[in-house]
Specification:
By secondary structure, this protein is an alpha/beta fold. It has two domains: about 10-40 and about 290-405, Alpha-Beta Complex (Aspartate Aminotransferase, domain 1); about 60-280, Type I PLP-dependent aspartate aminotransferase-like (Major domain) (Aspartate Aminotransferase, domain 2), CATH 3.40.640. About 35% of the residues lie in helices and about 15% in strands. Strands 1-7-6-5-4-2-3 form a seven-stranded mixed β-sheet. The protein has a four-stranded antiparallel β-sheet with strand order 8-11-13-12, with helices on one face. A two-stranded antiparallel ribbon has the order 9-10. Strand 9 (about 325) and strand 10 (about 330-335) form a beta hairpin. The protein binds 4'-deoxy-4'-aminopyridoxal-5'-phosphate. 4'-deoxy-4'-aminopyridoxal-5'-phosphate binds near residues 96, 98, 194 and 196. Its cofactor is pyridoxal 5'-phosphate. Belongs to the alliinase family.
Length: about 400
């Protein structure tokens, strides 16, 4: 309470003050504060001290703009967790994976001087809306937002149309509904597979992922969303497997060029902090202080609590997720999704977001995910305190049904 931080921001748990707009956004967003207690337990081991003279140059000014050591630790972590095959991949750092959305769409699109039509960027509903908003913000000569795959998948099944020139975003496990998905377009379409949540906190790991272009972010891995660090693993010979127009291009190089041109390379300070974080996580794997055991336990407990309350409701329901065998924990693990994908069942609750808002529960409407207003997303990643308040409000909402019958 009332602590003053080194950066001069006063606030509980380091959270910003109650600017109503920022505060509302934080409550419904995927702000990963569920890991805050873990890092409080590992405060010294994860601390990084940086002298004033350290790494002052622009990241573009020498060959070390991507920390070789950090890249090595990232590869270790994937191999140790068994969630991705990285030996044959290039790693490109960026300021959060939001930046990678544009970097990769640019890298996979035909050159602006090319005579070919712009690439069509698509995703299957319900999908993470930032793919649409970021693509729409920059679309033009190189690429356009093409809507959901439903439209294109049908078109390509019914005619001889090819999937050339399509870039498909796939999130696995998905934000908002936590299901594991694969690309649906196939053929010569390029797929960008966003594995932000493909860590044992949030899902079982059936096998290491091995797609040509895989996005990851520290935000959902260690919880350091404010550091803005994401990376992509790109298959070294992805140019051969990608669609015709870019087959001679080097996708990893184009993605790297994008990052260099837009922010002059990922922040050195962030890279240093990430190195400390990676080392602390790696040192504790499979011990009592394993971050994934901690994260899974926190998220599983939340999911159980929410299910126990919602199972009494005829008004709202949740997505169904089964316990599954996880290669990391080497046992069947219970579900622990990052988000609850809530459906309003009553005919009059056409707008599920509004129905929950009336009960003082801030969610993100299914409309943003192109899934319709009957659905809304509840973030379960928040701080313990916020989660407890959420449980109180959901309980009140469900209890109120008794008096309505
Ligand atoms: N991809 C997905 C699927 C996400 O849910 C999020 C964050 N909510 C991001 C990317 C963005 O993460 P970052 O903090 O790395 O920009």
């Amino acid at each position: 309470h009332g602590q003053v931080f080194l950066d001069g921001v006063a606030g509980e748990d380091g959270r910003p003050g109650c600017d109503p707009i920022v505060f509302e956004w934080l409550l419904c967003s995927g702000n990963p504060l569920f890991l805050d207690p873990y890092w409080r337990r590992h405060a010294a081991a994860s601390a990084v001290v940086v002298s004033g003279w350290h790494r002052m140059s622009y990241t573009t000014s020498d060959a070390t703009f991507q920390s070789v050591e950090l890249e090595r630790q990232i590869r270790f972590l994937h191999t140790a967790v068994g969630n991705a095959i990285v030996d044959d991949k290039h790693v490109v750092f960026a300021a959060g994976s939001v930046q990678l959305i544009n970097a990769l769409v640019h890298a996979l699109s035909p050159d602006a001087n090319d005579a070919s039509p712009p690439a069509r960027v698509v995703a299957t509903a319900p999908y993470y809306p930032t793919y649409r908003t970021q693509t729409a913000m920059f679309d033009g000569r190189e690429y356009v937002w093409g809507g959901t795959t439903a439209r294109w998948a049908n078109a390509s099944r019914n005619s001889t149309a090819t999937t050339d020139g399509y870039i498909e975003f796939v999130t696995s496990p998905n934000n908002p509904d936590a299901q594991l998905y694969s690309p649906v377009l196939g053929g010569s379409a390029a797929a960008i597979v966003d594995h932000a949540y493909y860590w044992p906190h949030f899902t079982h790991i059936p096998a290491p992922a091995d797609e040509d272009v895989m996005m990851f972010t520290i935000s959902k891995l260690s919880g350091h969303a404010g550091s803005r660090f994401g990376y992509v693993n790109i298959y070294s010979f992805s140019c051969v497997r990608m669609w015709a127009l870019i087959k001679d291009e080097n996708v990893a190089k184009r993605a790297k060029d994008y990052v260099q041109n837009s922010i002059m390379g990922a922040s050195r300070d962030t890279q240093l902090r990430m190195l400390g974080t990676m080392k602390a996580m790696l040192a504790n794997l499979h011990t009592e202080e394993d971050i994934f055991a901690f994260g899974h336990d926190a998220m599983r407990t939340r999911w159980l609590k929410l299910n126990a309350i919602v199972s009494r409701s005829r008004r709202i329901s949740l997505q169904k997720i089964q316990p599954q065998y996880c290669t990391y924990f080497q046992r069947i693990r219970e579900p622990s999704p990052a988000y609850a994908w809530v459906k309003c069942e009553r005919e009059e609750d056409v707008n599920c977001y509004d129905a929950l808002l009336k009960a003082n529960i801030i969610t993100r409407s299914g409309v943003y995910f192109e899934a319709g207003s009957r659905y809304t997303r509840v973030s379960l990643l928040k701080s313990d305190d916020d989660f407890e308040v959420l449980m109180e409000r959901v309980t009140d909402l469900v209890n109120a049904e008794k008096y309505e019958d």
